[in-house]
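Section 5.1 Outputs to date
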Amino acid sequence: QQQQQAPRSPRHRQPIDGTEVEMRYGYDYSESRPGPVQVYTLAGLAASCPQLALHYEQLNNGFPGPLSLTAGGASRASVVAFCNAKAASSAAVGSEQDQVLWSLLGIIVQHNGLVTSNHQSTLENTDPVTSDIAHMLLKNVVLEPFPPRPAPNPASISQLQTLLVLGEKAEACELAVREGLWDQALMLSSRLSADMFNDVMARWMDDTIPRHSPMRGLYMLYAGRGPIAGSSPVFSAHDLRQWRATLAAIISNPTAGDRDYIVHLGDSLRAAGQTVAAHVCYLCAGGAVGALSQKDSRLVLCGYEHRFRVRHLLLPEVVQATEVVEYAQLLRKQGFVPDFHLFRFMYAQWLAEAGLYAAAFAYCDTIARTIRDTTAAQLSLGVNHASGASSQYPRLFLQQLTDLVARLRACDPAAAARSTMTDFWRDQSRALEKPAIGAETVSGRTSALGGLLPPSSEQPPGSLSPQTFSQQQQQQEYAQQQQQQ
């Protein structure tokens, strides 16, 4: 303060990343050097950072979001076109599982969110949904041939004939199994008992059908030997080589236990580190997207293993794929994806950082619409929130959402003028001006969804959960306050 301040340097305009940016130098002290304030655009920085370049590229990939069924929302045809384009681009770079995932999402949206019809097995697969999915799964898949089988022993056939003439059907069946005369064994066991037939069929599969063959899983279901729901994965990496053909065979031939088998196949793929393939299986089994706070959720973010720690890179396309899944659920009247408003808010922040203010504002409006609809559903069930219409959502989340909208309104007044949720933002701002009632912590941990979701103690430390998401936001706010002071 005792040093004499030099006059300010004159303003000038300097091209930064091809854009004229107004620059102003700081004060020139006698014992310090003048430092320019450098201003960069995200597009310019992305050229020197591969991860940032990929992040920026995916934000500008033409995704027709936010997806909703309200008037003015993206059409179903535009969503299908985007999914097909993503599948084609994934195939061009050799990403097989991403290609299958985006192709599946396109088919599901094309058929109004349906994965399969509740039809019984017939002579041919006439269900258009499963037919389209099966043909997509088998595209460019080469089925491995069976190994050659030795010719039957004529002496064994003569001995079998003798036992049958004497009426010894059980001994004849056992002889046929022991000598590998499987056609005779299956015929005889079908006349003995259902348990004998299923046992012979299982032994025939073990002896003649390779473990990776798609026929094996189908015949296991026919024999009543499908995996038990909730059991540990039993497929090895060798068995999973033709998972696409196996999945196509199961969904094309509906039978008892087929959904459990598909989920079990997905669990095996997930245990082998093939997350995208596992999520394809879960979607084909008709599974819905689960919540972060539920330990048994298999699918939370489409194409992303949510059990990874926070430091693992989360790309915009993961949020986009999950939003397509939610859109498909809305098409079949299945409701919103739980906890997804957190990631939609994160996506809106990414859009704002990339300068896409209108798209970011549209996403904030979609979040507000979700809050309004879920609040109305809660009120219809008799749930009363004394501290405001949206108090089932944490105050910190609502405050950050409202702050982002205020900044976007200043950046893009035209987008703010097009908002259909103006009344909501006004009421929300007034509600946040009131002092908070009660605490948003339970046993010292913050619940990211307030009264809707209880805090979970099952999450691994540092995992991507609503609790750590909210705690990180609080830490960032505290750090910003300390820096300002």
